[in-house]
Structure formats: structure tokens, C-alpha cells
Amino acid sequence: MKYEFTTDLEQAKKLDQEDPLAEIRDHFYVKQGQIYMDGNSLGLASKDAEEALLKMMNVWKTQEIDMWTPYFHYGQELGNQCAKLINAEENEVLITGNTTSNIHQCVTTLYHPTKERYKILVDDLNFPTDRYAIDSDIRLTGYDPADAVKVVKSPDGKYIDEDAVIEAMTSDVALILLPTVLYRSAQVLDMERITKAAHEKGIIIGWDLCHAIGAIKMDFAKVQPDFAIWCTYKYLSAGPGSVAGLYLNKKHFDENPGLAGWWGNRDDTQFQLKHQFEHQKDVSGWQIGSPTMLGMAPLEGTLNLINSIGMDKIRTKSLKITSYLMFLIDEKLAKYGCTVGNPREDDKRGGHVCLEHPNAFQICSALKDRNVIPDFREPDVIRLAPIALYTSYEDVYKMVEILEDIMDSKSYEKYSSKRSLVV
């Protein structure tokens, strides 16, 4: 979409006055004087999440063991709410585990290698945990990742070539795992096109939604992937290390879970405590251990808030505010060697902007000392995420002003280029 932006503060204030989501900011704990641009790594705490957590604490205090009765299916109930974000059927989505354990669960369930078809297709830009899990699961089947992992190389180190992915779908490929939104460059892949191509070749395909869920609109009823996994602590603001999400297409419900556990047993026989697993044949059958109620509760609060707004409005603001940020980078920072390293097209851009500069790490350090919280990714990317729910246009304007001062004064040069533990 074309926007008419200017470089003056008054427009930023006007954009905030006209923002239909402006009042949602009050639901979040936004520190006064701080500009938080790292919600694509850890979303801010919300009052809704806090209320849901305290409610669960009170249930524990007052109901003790009896709390299991109303919350026995909590993972599925939260999954039903999460399903609305991706337009999946309710019984296809589950809140359980973490991103990596859910990759293991889906891959060990759906990867059935044969002599002729045993390779797993991945890209070389995805978050490394996905690759670690794939390599591990391949070893468990007796294959060597050096042979069984087929990697589609990025042509430029920034973006995935969708045509190259489809071309790599040869007859020896059994399964594919790809990111929906690239964590570095914010590229959005065409899930529908790639999934259709995979299925035409008889290949199982799954998607990592970690940087997509809560940031972009998705339609799983249309795409029909085989599986998907995601975390909930980024755009969903469910808390650090919060319980993750798992989608399994209902056509696979007759499969035996790769990693079976007692919480995936049939409801009617679970407490008979048999030593033979009886699989619950919906997505809840892929649960392993007892759900972590206190870890899941904050997600209930944020999902209630997000679903009350709707992904249409969230995505509309996200696209506009990231467009505004890119405009200001072009107008105010390009002269200092700063460039935009993410796709500019609305349908190809996720929820964050990638500001690239050779001294990106030092600039990040300078920003933090000015009470701006960015995110650095190798080799030269400053990720800036103006989150639709709590970032204002004035935040974006003031951050760029601070960046302009840092670049003009070269104050970043006094900071070390040595990486810290968490960047």
C-alpha cells in the first residue's frame, strides 16, 4: 500500500491520534522513557497476561488437586483460541512443549524414510534449532545428516529463493521444514505455493511460524500444511520461554505419535494407567507430559486480547508502522550508510524491519545506552520490531532521531564490537 509520510514529528503524533489500536498500548507494561523494539524476540508483559496468571495461581490456592477437573483440557482450549490466528480447525492446534520439542514430535511422527525417499529438505537461513532437531531426528533413524539433509542455499545470504526450493523437491525428499517468516530478513514465504508444490510430489511439509504467528495473517484451511510449530513469547507476549504451539493436519490423526506420553493417551482410559499407550486421535494425542498450567496461563490473557482485536487490524497497523520506519530510515539514515535489508512489499514482509550497517552491533550498544531496546543479528543486522499492539508512531520517530544523532556523532565507535551473551 502507498502511504504519504513526512519527516516531521507532528505527523507521527497525528498517526497516533488516528491509530485504531492506540488504546491497546495501555494493556501493556511499557516503561516510561523507553522505546522497546525487541518484541519479535520477547513480547512485553501485558496486564491481561498478568491477570490470567494470577487467576491460575488463585485456582491452585483454592482448588488444589480439584483444579485438574476444569483445566484438564487447557492445552486444547488454548489451542482452539490459537487456531483462530491461522484459520485452522480447533482440534488441529495444541499448546504444548516448546518449539524444538514440537519439531521433534512432528518430524518423528511424519518422517518415514525409505531407501528411495529419505531426505529432509531445509534452507540455510532458518533459525538453527530447526536444523539441530532435523539432524538429531535423522540420526535416530540410522541415516547420516550429511547425506539425508538436503539444503537449499540462499543466493544472497538474506532471502530464500522459492523457485529453488520447489526445484529441490526431488523424488528422494520425504519431508520439508521451512520458516514462514525469516528471523533475520523478515521475508515472508508463499506457504500456499510451496505447500501445493510439495504435496503434488507426495512430500510432507511443515512450517516454523515463530516469527509469523501474531504478526501476519495465515489461512491454514487454504494452505493445508501437514504440520507447523511456533513459540508464543514473541508477538503473542505469553512470557519468557512460554509454552509453544503445535498444528497437525487432521489427515494425520491416525499416525502414531513419534514421542508418546501419558497426556496423549485417550481421555477415557488415561487414568486406568495401562502400560500400553492408547492414542487420542486428535491433536491432543501429541501431548507428552502433564501441561504446565502456570506457564500456559499468560497466553490465555494475550490470546483473549488479540482475538478481540483480530489479525486484520493487527496486520494493517504492522504494515503501516513498518512502512513508516522504512521511510524514515531512507530519509534520515541512508546518508550514514544505513540500508533496509528486508523486503519492502507488504505481502513479502513480516513484522520487523532490518536496518543494516557494518557497525550494527556497536550501534545496538549505543541505542541501549539511550534507552532504546533493539535486537542484533549476525553479521550486520539491527532488527527493529514496532509491535502493532504497543508501539506508537512517535516511538518510531524518536528512535530514528536517536539513531540519527548516534550516526552523526559517531558515538557508536566508543563501543566494543565483541558480542555479549545475549544479543
- Amount of beta strand: 5-15%
Tell how many strands the DSSP assignment holds.
13
Span of the ends, CA to CA: 33 Å
Tell me the series of helices and strands, N- to C-terminal. HEHHHEHEHHEHEHEHEEHHEEHEEEH
Q: What is the H level of CATH, i.e. the homologous superfamily of the largest domain?
A: Type I PLP-dependent aspartate aminotransferase-like (Major domain)
**CATH topology (fold) name of the largest domain:** Aspartate Aminotransferase, domain 2
Characterize the biggest β-sheet. 7 strands, mixed
Query: What is the CATH top level name of the largest domain?
Result: Alpha Beta
**CATH architecture label name of the largest domain:** 3-Layer(aba) Sandwich
The coarse overall form would be globular
What structural keywords apply?
about 425 residues; alpha/beta; Aspartate Aminotransferase, domain 1; Aspartate Aminotransferase, domain 2; 7-stranded mixed beta sheet; 4-stranded antiparallel beta sheet; 14 helices; about 40% helix; globular
3D structure, described in words:
It catalyses: L-kynurenine + H2O = anthranilate + L-alanine + H(+); 3-hydroxy-L-kynurenine + H2O = 3-hydroxyanthranilate + L-alanine + H(+). Pyridoxal 5'-phosphate binds at residues 99-100, 127-130, 208, 211, 233, 262. It is a single chain. By secondary structure, the chain is α/β, with parallel strands linked by helices. The protein has two domains: 9-30 and 310-414, Aspartate Aminotransferase, domain 1; 50-308, 3-Layer(aba) Sandwich (Aspartate Aminotransferase, domain 2), CATH 3.40.640. It contains 14 helices and 13 strands. It has helices spanning 9-18, 47-63, 68-71, 74-86, 99-110, 128-140, 145-148, 162-167, 191-200, 220-223, 293-309, 311-333, 360-369, 393-409, and strands at residues 35-36, 93-95, 119-123, 149-152, 173-179, 204-208, 227-230, 245-248, 339-340, 353-356, 372-373, 375-377, 381-384. The strands form three sheets. Strands 2-8-7-6-5-3-4 form a seven-stranded mixed beta sheet, with helices on both faces. It has a four-stranded antiparallel beta sheet with strand order 9-10-13-12, with helices on one face. It is globular, with a radius of gyration of 22 Å. It starts with 8 loop residues before the first helix and ends in a 14-residue tail after the last helix. The relative contact order is 0.17.
